[in-house]
Design a protein that fits this description.
This protein is of the alpha/beta class and 223 residues long. The protein has a domain of 144 residues: Vaccinia Virus protein VP39 (Rossmann fold), CATH 3.40.50.150. It is built from six helices and nine strands; from the N terminus they run H-E-E-H-E-E-H-E-H-E-H-E-E-E-H. It has a three-stranded parallel sheet. Strand 5, helix 4 and strand 6 form a beta-alpha-beta unit. The protein is globular and about 50 Å long.
Amino acid sequence: MDAGNAWPKDSPWLRDAVEALPRDAFAPDSVWTWDGHAWQRVDRAADPQAWARFVHAGPDDATITEITDGVPSSSLSCTSIVVDMLDSLDLQPAHRVLELGTGTGWNAALIAHRVGPTGHVTSIETDPTLATIAAATLTRAGARVDVRLGDGTLGRPLRTADRHPPGLTTAKDGRSATGWLHGLAQFMNARGTPTHRHVRADRDPDHERVLTRDPRPSSTTPT
């Protein structure tokens, strides 16, 4: 989805994939929401309507699915980012794809939907519990994804993927470049990445103040 929450014109397959593989099929029974002071658990069994509301939030809202040491460590990324990134990847049938960070498995399932039975998707997850759950979820969804336990920053042996997506080509004089440049997008940090807790050394905030600006994205019109 672009800034106006429209489906990418060059990747019509994405809408079909998202409809065939809904977010709730990959969401755990407990998700998390920030109440302004702490992360609060929302259980599907205890409050199914609230759970569904957070899982199927707006296109610009992620669903936090795991908290580790008090900070988010896994999520169902917001639909707009997932769609935008997969559009930029220019996936084609029969492609071989390496994904770093399986999480819930939703993104890997969408990729598998596109590359089809002649393609191959390998997804690496560092958390054993997440890897096991995602592999089972992907199997139930009928998505052909090879989930591997390991450190994604180390990559995988040969035959996982044979090339990187095209990037920028720098001119010989070094003064310009041409190619595809994607806008700002951010997923969960890799495990071990310093967080605000490391920076602040677990000190309490110096002060709190009321947020007067609307923190929502400027465009949140649903499709």
